[in-house]
Design goal:
globular; 240 residues; four-stranded mixed sheet; single chain; 30% helix; alpha/beta; five-stranded mixed sheet
């Protein structure tokens, strides 16, 4: 079995289409999505239409939840920009998404951690562009009680593959649409493979027309996003 894992598209349809083309070349049995789908000042409506059409198994992200439920935090500039453009069908889709789910009892999906869509699992939060790996005890504790060989998370935009001492994999595929820490704008996703009952994972980085994406954010009134889109060096601080 081979599964593609995407996360944190953030309304970047150009990056999503490039990733989908790469996935088609790899050849997979399924593609799954870890949330934060539309929340970016690029092409939220185009991204929403495409992802609804694809109907990948998906969990809700924190920004999805803010927008879908019209929470006070959704009044921040980016989420407000997106919510004002989405149609009822897009909001209904977000509201239909679960916080967690699994695939055939083998692969567990969440956005942040199993109990929170805002809490990071495999990386501590940012100080400028610095991320730090939390201790083994912290990472392992968040997997407590989850009897799945593969545990998936997103949210931090940082690709990471961890194998716990008991053999379970914890994988963050990174972000399709918005790079913070890599010094490269390439869209990222993961591929899971199962051979002889053993799961492995790899991270893929895919070039796309990031300059066109940068022009989208500039044209939509969010020029401070352009640095992150163009280079991957920008800090997450202040983007949303």
């Amino acid at each position: 079995m081979r599964i593609a894992v995407i996360s944190d598209v953030h309304g970047n349809r150009l990056a999503l289409e490039a990733v989908e083309a790469s996935i088609a070349m790899v050849g997979v049995d399924a593609t799954i999505n870890l949330g934060d789908l539309f929340a970016g000042p690029l092409d939220p409506v185009g991204t929403a239409d495409l992802l609804i059409e694809r109907n990948y198994p998906t969990v809700i992200g924190n920004h999805d939840r803010y927008i879908a439920n019209d929470q006070p935090v959704s009044k921040r500039p980016v989420d407000k920009f997106v919510s004002e453009r989405l149609r009822p069908v897009h909001l209904d889709y977000l509201r239909s998404l679960p916080a967690t789910r699994d695939i055939e009892g083998e692969v567990f999906l969440c956005h942040g951690t199993p109990t929170s869509d805002e809490e990071p699992w495999l990386d501590a939060w940012w100080t400028d562009r610095t991320v730090t790996m939390p201790g083994e005890a912290s990472v392992t504790a968040k997997a407590d009680g989850l009897d799945f060989p593969v545990l998936l998370c997103g949210h931090t935009h940082v690709s990471r593959i961890v194998r716990l001492r008991d053999g379970r994999l914890v994988v963050n595929p990174g972000s399709v649409g918005l790079q913070f820490n890599y010094g490269a704008p390439d869209a990222r996703y993961a591929v899971l493979e199962r051979h002889g009952g053993q799961w492995s994972a790899s991270i893929r980085a895919v070039p796309y027309d990031f300059e066109a994406a940068a022009q989208q954010v500039i044209g939509n009134g969010f020029p401070h996003w352009a640095e992150a889109i163009r280079t991957g060096w920008a800090s997450a601080i202040g983007l949303f």
